[in-house]
Design brief:
Blueprint lengths: L1 H17 L1 E6 L13 E8 L2 E8 L4 E8 L7 E8 L5 E8 L2 E2 L1 E6 L5 E8 L2 E9 L5 E7 L5 E3 L1
Antiparallel strand pairs: 1-2, 2-3, 3-4, 4-5, 5-6, 6-7, 6-8, 8-9, 9-10, 10-11, 11-12
Length: 152
């Protein structure tokens, strides 16, 4: 029984390794050799799509993690989270067929909220709020209908 369990775990591990892809990018996000890379990307096939995790090579911190519908990771379909180089959250958004959906947030590199908005099919549907780095509100936009928005 132990031998069977060990063989099963080894087969699962080898399958997972075969499903992972590594890519390297320079500072301009152009593909490059690992020796010149500023970013490393790991793509893993899951039951709900492909998960891409990007890392800053210099400090080995995560830069982005997102769920995609396609193997080329061009169509976002699920949660995507970005991080500043210092490790603080940069932005959080849910995508449906590459368009923002629901509440989406972004943050300054000091951890203070930068803006927030509600989206439907990639468009702001209600209120968009933004803040300065010190936490003081900057402005707001209220969408009244398809043709009228009010900015304060």
């Amino acid at each position: 029984m132990r031998l069977f369990s060990l063989l099963f775990l080894l087969s699962v591990a080898s399958t997972l390794c075969a499903q992972q892809k590594e890519l390297y990018y320079d500072a301009d996000w152009k593909p490059c050799d690992v020796s010149k890379a500023s970013f490393a990307s790991f793509i893993i096939k899951t039951d709900s799509g492909w998960v891409m995790s990007d890392y800053y090579i210099a400090n080995k911190q995560i830069q982005m993690k997102g769920l995609f519908a396609d193997e080329a990771c061009k169509i976002r379909n699920g949660v995507s989270v970005w991080y500043h180089v210092n490790g603080y959250l940069s932005s959080y958004a849910y995508f449906k067929n590459n368009k923002k959906e629901g509440a989406c947030y972004s943050y300054h590199d000091n951890g203070m909220m930068r803006d927030s908005a509600f989206y439907k099919d990639g468009e702001v549907t209600d209120t968009y709020l933004s803040w300065h780095r010190n936490g003081v509100m900057r402005d707001s936009i209220k969408r009244l209908n398809d043709s009228i928005t009010v900015s304060v």
